[in-house]
Design goal:
Elements: E1 2-3, H1 14-18, H2 20-33, E2 42-43, H3 47-57, H4 75-85, H5 95-102, H6 104-113, E3 121-124, E4 137-141, E5 155-156, H7 159-173, E6 177-181, E7 185-194, E8 198-207, H8 221-225, H9 230-234, E9 236-241, H10 245-262, E10 267-275, E11 281-287, H11 298-304, H12 309-322, H13 328-338
């Protein structure tokens, strides 16, 4: 199950939407090679497509690659909820986890309550008369992922710039903002997978250019997705980043706690900043539905941990089937036959 791309190629967010097709192809081919019967469902904005397909096939499980649609991004959550309602087992994080993690301010409040280190933040639904955070700060849409809405203008150094950026996010994304203390230092992404035991995987580190004028060292949308852009070409990655053992051990423990706190399952990625000067770690966010195409994102963490891509995908299927219950749709069909 995946999100059928809807945006035209000329749209600035086209690449981040269409890349799911690479994962669909890779996973589908792999499962067929291992003698699974596979059907693909590309969802748009009509939930009936999902309900009718589940009723038609009564599948043993669903590989959930669905990330929502541009006009209804919250459908990423609802699709998982519908699968749970229908009693169908699926891969990845459950509905409740997706809801918690997608709401960045709410997730941050949970991190604070659990004693997990995270940058100081505030929530903004309109212009601010004052900012209690020390500048610079970074402004992000509160309910987006994939770095949508994050660019070089996201980091601001004054109250005037802050309110201008808040106004931009409200207009362009129709949602409030997370305003967060900007942490100067290294940025690393760790992953946790259930194989079936919980495994903490080595980090991928973003290597930012040091000599670009007027440049903030952040992973913007362009840096992640827009091939040919200055930021994409200037940002490099180290796929087996090294930290002092004691620091990495702390991050591993914090990451496991965050994984369990939000109710993650099967796999998730955690973005961290390591402050320059004192090496203090700060958890930025948990991504409960990361891309795992064979050549990027989570797959880089798997490679660094010497976990074969095939082994990871097949373990996802085993996890899913071990959680399987008789779907409500299948029980309905059996009842109809019995009647």
């Amino acid at each position: 199950m995946y999100n059928e791309p809807l945006l035209p190629e000329s749209h600035p967010d086209y690449i981040s939407e269409v890349e799911v097709l690479d994962t669909v192809e890779a996973v589908g081919d792999l499962l067929q090679q291992h003698h699974y019967q596979v059907e693909s469902l590309g969802l748009t904005n009509d939930p009936q497509e999902l309900i009718q397909t589940i009723r038609r096939f009564a599948p043993d499980g669903v590989i959930n690659l669905y990330e929502g649609t541009p006009t209804h991004p919250g459908s990423e959550l609802y699709a998982a909820g519908l699968l749970e309602w229908l009693g169908v087992s699926y891969t990845g994080c459950p509905f409740q986890c997706l809801v918690l993690a997608r709401n960045k301010p709410l997730a941050k409040r949970l991190f604070v309550s659990e004693g997990l280190p995270t940058p100081a933040f505030l929530f903004a639904e309109g212009p601010l008369a004052r900012c209690d955070l020390a500048f610079p700060v970074i402004v992000k849409p509160a309910l987006q992922d994939a770095s949508l809405g994050v660019d070089q203008q996201s980091v601001v150094t004054s109250l005037e710039q802050l309110n201008q950026r808040i106004a931009y996010v409200l207009k362009e994304f129709d949602q409030p903002c997370l305003v967060e203390e900007f942490i100067f230092g290294r940025e690393l992404t760790y992953a946790i997978v259930e194989m079936p035991d919980l495994r903490f995987l080595p980090a991928t580190e973003a290597i930012f250019p040091q000599d670009l004028p007027g440049y903030w060292p952040i992973l913007t949308y362009d840096a992640k997705w827009t091939r040919g852009s200055r930021e994409f070409e200037a940002t490099d990655y180290h796929f087996h980043a090294q930290l002092p053992p004691e620091l990495e051990s702390r991050i591993a423990e914090y990451s496991r706690r965050a994984f369990r706190l939000l109710g993650c399952r099967d796999y998730a990625r955690m973005d961290w900043r390591i402050r320059a000067g004192d090496d203090a770690p700060f958890l930025l966010e948990v991504n409960p539905n990361p891309d795992f195409a064979p050549d990027r994102a989570l797959s880089n963490n798997l490679w660094a941990a010497n976990i074969a891509y095939d082994d990871f995908v097949l373990q996802l299927v085993r996890n899913m089937l071990n959680r399987r219950q008789t779907p409500l749709t299948q029980r309905y069909r059996l009842d109809q036959l019995a009647g």
